[in-house]
Specification:
Belongs to the pectinacetylesterase family. The protein has helices at 3-10, 32-48, 52-55, 111-117, 179-192, 208-215, 217-222, 250-261, 270-273, 304-311, 323-327, 334-350, 352-355, 376-379, 392-400, and strands at 60-66, 84-88, 97-102, 131-134, 152-156, 168-170, 175-177, 200-206, 229-235, 295-300, 361-365, 386-387, 390-391, 407-409. With 425 residues, the protein is of the alpha/beta class. The protein has a 10-stranded mixed β-sheet with strand order 4-1-2-5-3-8-9-10-11-14. Strand 6 (168-170) and strand 7 (175-177) form a beta hairpin. The chain is globular and about 55 Å long.
Length: 425
């Protein structure tokens, strides 16, 4: 199906403007796995953390809770420290509603990159912030988060490196790959704190956490009785198994290392691994058809992380032809834009069958962005991104509460004038 035919199929429309973001320098790394780790770490920080202060001058700060019983279950971070989460209790009409947000922050696919990772907050609770701001979908203010502000809101910290799905260890390097156990320990702990009585529950996640929310969506549903309204949200988690600018498969090669090193295969759904290789089953496009729980996919069509670290990483662009384009989409050449448009079409094709289900939701805007649910300016603000007149927070809320079916897909760049496009220079 050609791009014009596909656009006719989706019946899309929209408008919006570019938003210049804070300065951020893209570095070149000597080896591939370190590029992916550092790129995701820096991009996650730039994308998520620098937006806290702009739209929320006094955000709610929530303390870290370590899961004391986790070590007995072998549920530990890469360095063996206890995992943790941040919880802010619900109140009023939301007292029996629970929102679990799985933190993102990339992956590690080699001993070397995982050893480095365990010296950071992405691999050790020793290095985690003792308090973090709750903004966007985690905000406790109705004017910032109209549908979920008074729910029990939890952010589960990410300290394994395989989207909460690994199982194994490397004794020589003193590495614990216990992502699946961390997921289970966190959920079990929260169940004892009242989540087992939930009337409503939403599992969410951003980036690597968005992938985790897809991987664990059906498990999450099984925790609750049929009377509990359970759904899942994946923000910026639709990582595509795409050809990079050199004609290779940079992200597939990287994911292959993650899956093999951290023992992810045993925790991947058999509905996929019975038919495809384990690495393919770490890509959401091969998982979403078998998610029986209602799932909402929120993604930028030109996801900034995927453009920088998957489509045109240094290994695929050794001469830096894509450097300016990656820093600022306005500097992309016509042929580079054409390449990115083809990537968008592949993304739309990947969710076509998924979108046919009435229970699923979709919001794919034609922005150069990454993670739009945790940032206040993109989640719910006066100038937040929109498709038609529908912003992200209201789209997710309408879908969760069954107020309307949401299948929102933007027309192609540059038609959307509401985007908060990320510019890194």
């Amino acid at each position: 199906m050609g791009s014009q035919q596909l656009m006719k199929f989706w019946g899309v429309m929209i408008f919006v403007v570019g938003f210049s973001f804070s300065k951020w320098a893209v570095e070149s790394f000597d080896f591939y796995d370190e590029f992916f780790y550092n790129k995701t770490e820096q991009v996650s920080s730039a994308f998520l953390e620098s937006g806290y202060g702009d739209a929320a001058p006094t955000p709610l700060m929530v303390g870290l809770t370590l899961i004391e019983g986790a070590a007995a279950q072998g549920a530990v971070c890469l360095d063996g420290t206890l995992p943790g989460y941040h919880i802010h209790r619900g109140f009023g009409s939301g007292a029996s509603s629970w929102l679990i947000q799985l933190e993102g922050g990339g992956w590690c696919n080699t001993i070397r990159s995982c050893v480095y990772r365990k010296t950071t907050r992405r691999g050790s609770s020793t290095h985690m912030e003792k308090q973090i701001p709750f903004t966007g979908i985690l905000s406790n203010k109705p004017e910032e988060n109209p549908d979920f502000f008074n729910w029990n809101r939890i952010k589960v910290r990410y300290c394994d490196g395989a989207s909460f799905a690994g199982e194994g260890e490397d004794k020589v390097a003193q590495l614990q790959f216990r992502g699946q156990r961390i997921w289970q320990a966190a959920i079990q702990d929260l169940m004892t704190k009242g989540m087992r009585f939930a009337d409503r529950a939403l599992l969410s996640g951003c980036s690597a956490g968005g992938l985790a929310s897809i991987l664990h969506c059906n498990e999450f549903r099984e925790l609750f009785p049929s009377s509990t309204k359970v759904k899942c949200l994946a923000d910026a988690g639709l990582f595509m198994d795409s050809i990079d600018v050199s004609g290779g498969h940079a992200l597939r090669n990287f994911f292959s290392g993650v899956v093999k090193l951290q023992g992810v295969e045993k925790n991947l759904p058999s509905t996929c691994t019975n038919y495809l290789d384990p690495t393919s089953c770490f890509f959401p496009q091969n998982l979403i058809a078998n998610i029986k729980t209602p799932l909402f996919i929120l993604n930028a069509a030109y996801d900034s992380w995927q453009v920088q670290a998957s489509l045109a990483p240094p290994v695929a662009d050794p001469h830096g032809t894509w450097r300016d384009c990656k820093l600022n989409h306005a500097r992309c050449t016509a042929s580079q834009i054409e390449f990115l448009q083809a990537f968008r079409i592949r993304m739309l094709n990947a969710v076509r069958s998924f979108s046919m289900s009435e229970q699923n939701g979709l919001f794919i805007n034609s922005c150069f962005a990454h993670c739009q649910s945790e940032r206040q300016d993109t989640w719910f603000a006066d100038d937040s991104p929109a498709i038609g007149k529908m912003g992200i927070a209201l789209a997710v809320g309408d879908w969760y509460f069954d107020r309307s079916g949401i299948k929102a897909i933007d027309c192609a760049y540059p038609c959307d004038k509401t985007c908060h496009n990320l510019v890194f220079d």
